Amino acid sequence: MPILEIRNVTRRFGGLAAVHDVSLSIEAGEFFTLLGPSGCGKTTLLRMIAGFDLPDAGQILLDGKDLADTAPERRPIHTVFQSYALFPHMTVWQNIAFPLEMARRPPAEIRQRVAEALEQVHLADKSGHFPHELSGGQKQRVALARGLVNKPRLLLLDEPLGALDAKLREEMRNELIELQREIGVTFIFVTHSQQEALALSHRIAVMREGRVEQVDEPAKLYGLPRNRFVADFIGDINMMEAEVSAVAHGQLHLHIPVLGVVQAPPAANAKVGDRGVLALRPEQVRLTPQGQHHELANHFHGKVQSFIYLGDVTVYTVMLDNGASIEALAANNAPGRATFFKVGDDVAVAWRHDAGLFLDE
Q1: Separation of alpha carbons 84 and 76, rounded Å
Q2: pLDDT tens across 155-209, in order?
Q3: CA distance 265 to 356
Q4: Mean pLDDT of 129-155
Q5: What is the pTM of this model?
Q6: Whole-angstrom Cα distance, residue 206 to residue 231?
């Protein structure tokens, strides 16, 4: 049985359905992420799980028990906020001990649990410090320790890395993965960052306008998006309007107005005349100097219009002869070279017959 079941939950604010008929099942020990743009309903859904808000319809069940009549403070759930919400006048030890003291746990148990929590987040040497004496990452770890000290069934994390700089966010991502693996508590994580979601999660629910568009493992969301929204929201992608012109020998032939006919992998139920898009990841696009022989099925000529150097990779924007533009990603693995191509260079743009996806919605 799943640890958490969300059954047909709806939450309205006036005429707006912030969450509309959402159903999810989350397994014990899972790192589950709610991902989507601002206003998609992910934080509203998290607040309903925590008990800070109540659904207008549907059920939320923890270990098979409906939480409708359970007050937030009586739910075996803890929420970690982006702001950390630490008490500035309390030491690290006192901040972590606070929920245990409120629960009137025996002093010996409090000492043991706080010591364990400090060890889990590697802050035993900071127990006597105050929040203003800590770095952003250390404050985040105190907030996590306070969330874990009561041994909750669920730990809810609402944009917990949003206040950190890029380098620290990356470090904390790695720490969260290790921490969740070590303690085995179920994490439900809310973020609008696709990179965080892909890096951290066992499964991700992509939300839009109060609905769940797709629930899947990160690799499947990225490689097999169900529709245009998911394809566009998860990572960078080229999307070109296309019409199915032939279905033969396990292959689609797509007519793309700006390119002509290209080959693509089969799509379920696709038939001649269907309209949609060819969704093609930049890393699936290969760039070579113009004039090189191409064995790949789909190849076109263009000029490098611009590029963005990102250290390990470079993302090129290429203007094709017919005026269409396409993005291609190339690894910077040639020694001593920062880029392979310059603006204005003639290049061949190509991709395999089995690259990309045809999406009709």
Answers
A1: 19
A2: 999 887 776 667 777 777 787 888 888 888 899 999 988 988 998 899 999 999 9
A3: 7
A4: 87
A5: 0.88
A6: 11
Question: What CA–CA distances, in Å, run from 189 to 147, 173, 220?
Answer: 13, 12, 19
CATH topology for 236-359? OB fold (Dihydrolipoamide Acetyltransferase, E2P) (2.40.50)
**The three-state (H, E, C) secondary structure of the chain, written as one string:** CCCEEEEEEEEEECCEEEEEEEEEEECCCCEEEEECCCCCCHHHHHHHHHCCCCCCEEEEEECCEECCCCCHHHCCEEEEECCCCCCCCCCHHHHHHHHHHHCCCCHHHHHHHHHHHHHHCCCHHHCCCCHHHCCHHHHHHHHHHHHHCCCCCEEEEECCCCCCCHHHHHHHHHHHHHHHHHHCCEEEEEECCHHHHHHHCCEEEEEECCEEEEEECHHHHHHCCCCHHHHHHCCCCEEEEEEEEEEECCEEEEEECCCEEEEECCCCCCCCCCEEEEEECHHHCEEEECCCCCCCCEEEEEEEEEEEECCCEEEEEEEECCCCEEEEEEECCCCCCCCCCCCCCEEEEEECCCCCEEECC
Distance CA 34, CA 193 (A): 10
For residues 200 and 176, is the Cβ–Cβ distance under 8 A? yes
Q: Residues of 277-288 as b/e, b for ≥16 C-beta within 10 angstroms?
A: bbbbbbbbbbbb
Write the pLDDT tens digit of every residue in 205-230.
999 999 999 999 999 999 999 999 99
- pLDDT per residue over 236-263, tens digit each? 999 999 999 999 888 899 999 888 899 9
Cβ atoms of 63 and 57 closer than 8 Å: no
Q: At 248, which amino acid appears?
A: A
What are the tokens at 62? 């923890």
Q: Which amino acid is at 292?
A: Q
Between CA 234 and CA 264 the distance in angstroms is: 20
Instruction: Name the one residue in this structure whose structure tokens are 């080959």.
Output: 263
Token output for 289:
């100097």
- 191 close to 21: Cβ distance less than 8 angstroms: no
User: Any idea which fold 4-231 has?
Assistant: Rossmann fold (3.40.50)
Give domain limits for the chain: 4-231, 236-359
